[in-house]
Structures are given as structure tokens and as C-alpha cells.
Design brief:
The protein starts with 20 loop residues before the first helix and ends in a 10-residue tail after the last helix. 52% of the residues lie in helices and 0% in strands. It has helices at 21-52, 59-65. The longest helix is centred in the middle third of the chain and has 32 residues, at 21-52. By secondary structure, it is mainly α.
Length: 75
């Protein structure tokens, strides 16, 4: 049995295939595009939920959508 098994030294590291700069940049562009699309979709969904009254607005959203709430000129 021992002769059939290929013996590897314990300190041998697995082979890692290097990537080129163009491969890395293509991967990075794809990753950034995916993140941007995900963020845009989350913002769109949040805006729809706010418009429908499903979720409560935070302070920034309230200031943007209803600035009259923060108008102190009446006092």
C-alpha cells in the first residue's frame, strides 16, 4: 500500500496559478459593478417601502423627503 501512494512532503504548498493584471482588473470591475447594482437595488427597494409607508424613515430620509418638519422659522 505504501508504495502505491504518492508521498508529498508536508511543507509543500499547493500550486497557485498567478493571474495577470488584466484578469485582476476585469474581476475588480465585475465585483464593483455587482456591488453597485446591489446597492442601487437596495436603495430603490427602501424608497418604495418608504413611499408605501411600510418602514419608518430615519432622520436623513425625513429631512430629504419632508424638510418642512425641520423648519424652525415659525418659532
Amino acid at each position: 500500500m505504501g508504495a502505491e501512494e504518492e508521498q508529498k512532503p508536508e511543507n509543500e504548498q499547493p500550486r497557485i496559478s498567478p493571474i495577470t493584471e488584466s484578469q485582476f482588473l476585469a474581476w475588480k470591475r465585475q465585483k464593483d459593478a455587482d456591488a453597485s447594482a446591489k446597492k442601487t437595488e437596495a436603495a430603490r427597494k427602501r424608497a418604495e417601502e418608504i413611499a408605501a409607508g411600510i418602514v419608518q424613515m430615519n432622520g436623513r430620509e425625513l429631512f430629504v423627503h419632508e424638510p418642512w418638519v425641520f423648519d424652525n422659522s415659525k418659532y
